[in-house]
Design brief:
cysteine-type endopeptidase activity; single chain; flat; protein transport; 27% strand; 20% helix; protease; Cysteine protease
Length: 195
């Protein structure tokens, strides 16, 4: 669904069954998913597959709508944030933070030499550093089509992010995206077998 993160779907994809369980269906048992909703430590998944979540957004028509600016900046403050992809017409950037109403970005088009870390014990870390300094641009110059990136190494990271989103992002009437527990009943998702 557009601009919607469904908690149940993420938990099903990232929750790994214990060793020895039936692996024909990789999603966790329904009883585990139902008990997971209570948020207690005893209801956590047995194991969690790390997740990189990209949330594509459209925050205006021709330019970014100023009502989204504070919520957009709040996303950078979250410990799970990996930044945002976006830019302005004909320029794509990787945004890593902000300073006031200026976004700090790197140019993702700079290529680096490949380093094979398994080939030798000594690794030249020069390729892991940016040769160009980070740059700034006004947040009002941002193209409205952006994608936020988040990483959850463990289930508690995802649960913490959900709490932060509820507290900091969804408090506004004009929301950048939705965070829902389950798919709405009117939402039918076709499967490969049920088309």
């Amino acid at each position: 669904m557009d601009n919607t993160v469904v908690i149940e779907d993420i938990k099903k994809m990232c929750c790994v069954l214990p060793v020895g369980a039936d692996t024909a269906d990789e999603s966790p048992p329904a009883s585990l998913m139902a008990s997971n909703q209570s948020k207690g430590p005893s209801t956590m998944c047995p194991a969690w597959k790390p997740l990189l979540l990209i949330v594509p957004l459209h925050l205006g028509i021709n330019q970014i709508n100023p009502v989204y600016i504070e919520a957009f900046k709040e996303c950078f403050k979250m410990p799970q944030s990996l930044g945002a992809l976006g830019g302005k017409p004909n320029n794509a950037y990787y945004f890593i933070g902000f300073l006031g109403d200026e976004l700090i970005f790197l140019d993702p088009h700079t290529t680096q030499t490949f380093v094979d870390t398994e080939e030798s014990e000594i690794v030249d870390d020069q390729t892991f550093h940016c040769l160009q300094s980070p740059q700034q641009m006004s947040i009002l110059n941002l193209d409205p089509s952006v994608a936020l990136g988040f990483f959850y190494k463990e289930e508690k990271d995802f649960d913490n992010w959900c709490s932060l989103v509820q507290k900091e992002i969804l408090k506004e009437n004009l929301r950048m995206f939705e965070l829902v527990q389950k798919h709405p009943s009117h939402d039918s998702i076709p499967t490969a077998l049920g088309l």
